[in-house]
Amino acid sequence: MECKLTGDIRCHELCERLSEYIDRELAPSLCREIERHVAGCPACRCCLETLRQTVALCHRAGRHRIAAPLPRRLKARLRSLAKPPAAP
Amino acid sequence: MTTATLPARKKIVDSDTELVRAIIAGQTDKFDELVRRYEHRLYSFSRRMCREEADAEDMVQETFLNAFRYLGEFRYETRFRNWLYRIAVSTGLKKKRRSKFAPERELPLDDLETAGAGELNEETPAWARAPLERLLNEELLAVLNEAILALPEKHRIVVVLRDLEGFSTEEAAQILGLSAANVKVRLHRARSFLRDKLRGYFAHGM
Asked: Is the ipTM of this complex over 0.95?
């Protein structure tokens, strides 16, 4: 599948690997290929940078535990669980 | 003829090991400490698995019950945290199957694929270059959390484990019983979906 903007057939193929690139899970040779391509392809650069920012925002969202405190009802249920009867 | 023996698997020692050993050895009152260590994380995780608060509460409770029930089978071959999340995922999925809600829709993968470079006929937007501190606020977090909840379950679990809970690809694969390759594919689909939602939010508001 070629890129609608650049007509480059590699765009689609490389875009499919961008998550692995962001996660540093690709071989160095493929990383270099992506970097070379992205340097000359604004569409793929946009794709990479928006994806990278999305991942960074998700990481931060993960640190914000669900804002609501643990519901009192659940807390009570867990406290009773935490005192399990001794095994026979 | 020699008898073939399986190589012993390496035992993992982490910050939970001592506590888990004590509970398995009979000090069940220490289970309280295990609950305290994980109740908030598991509740947060469960809220992202179940839309309804009551379902998330049930999921946390059942997870701890199952963990207590099966703790004696824990073999220290993974981090305890990973084992607990495996139970949480399994508990959540079973709960979902029993629920009356309609089956999950599948993510339109073809649409997601064309929303890659081929659809981005623009320079990188300002939000993608902005410092996170400037972007992060309650509204954006709410948008992101809603987008996560809008993901089909099989994609949502992967992105939550990887990008929100901080598990590695291998750990997520182990927790979900998937191959690492499968985790990577689902993760990329999920991130692309979230990216498109964020792009929509920053372009037009949601």
From this structure: no
